[in-house]
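Record format v2
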Amino acid sequence: MSAARYFDLDVRFKWDGFRDDGYSAVFSPNLLGQDSSSYNPSKVNIAVIKGPEQKLPPKYDLVNYCNFISDPDSMAVIRDKGHAVELCVADIRNFILKGKIAQVQFFCGVLRTYRIPYVFTSGATCEYEVKSPKEISFIAEMLGFTQRQALYSMSETASLFVEGKQWH
Amino acid sequence: MALKKSVRTRHRYIKFRTISQRKFAGDEIYSEILRFVSRTHGAFAMPKMRLISYENSEGILKCRAQDLTQLRAALALLTSREYRIKLLSSSGTIKALSR
């Protein structure tokens, strides 16, 4: 039985040296795919939407609602076109530190209710900020997801975007 | 008179490892954890916890069983550019953690 492969689709620092310097130091192997050399998070198109007045760009893979304001029209478009909403741990952390966890929880409730695909990412800016899938699932539990749902989003849902770019 | 086992508070032990360029002392890491957890949960709602041991960058935290989910989430959210706290495992006994 093959082990599940997990992908972190939003990593905000230079990826090239990470595998040599930080990979083995930060988390155990096989978490980000068995062959990291062909997996490049910087090539995933992430559209950042700050408010409902902002329109979706013509070309994107994931949509990041960085202010966690749910917009039913654009979310319906995302679901119908087979894309996904990005739930970035770095943004979630900033909102929790501002005391706005209820807004994040409401946003996540909307995603579950209307069955909009989502992908958890770390949004790491250095190797020490990269999260393992299990740690992200602990954070997702606080937002109303189960650990299984969070792990599924990082493996199955994320792999659809990786396979679409023909990385293996 | 000793409490019955069914009435006693159940505890959980969380094993973690600190990954960093420099070595941190147990008190330093524990104060960082306390500060962050009180910031996320507030002074009144923060989970009750205690550092049991910290050696060779690996430590064990003790908390109540009902606070385990909150504490794990808070430790996972704790980020820094100098170090990383990696959660290794959690268990009801210290003996099971050391296996």
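The longest helix of chain B spans residues 26-41.
The radius of gyration of chain B is 14 Å.
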